[in-house]
Amino acid sequence: MIEMLPDDAVGLRLAKYFGDNLRLCEAVIFELGRQGVDMALRRAAISGRVDGGPILDHLADVMNANLDIVETIALDAKSFSALKNHWMPCKYEEPPHVI
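RESULT FIELD:
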């Protein structure tokens, strides 16, 4: 898994499509940096899909220290759930209010 991660990877931000709407989660930064990102993705891979293939409904943006997206990882529902609910608990960001 670590071979697909950029050297400056320090965090993940999960996202999920609900129909045509993409919902983002809070970014999670790992104290161990790239090694922490790798460990979380390896743990999620036990539950399901974690790879660089086509994005279907679930994904993880790999973030650098500036919170820039440096890679995108394809997930399935089970690996997404393992990350979101167990290995890096996070909440969905609130959608912007339209007035």
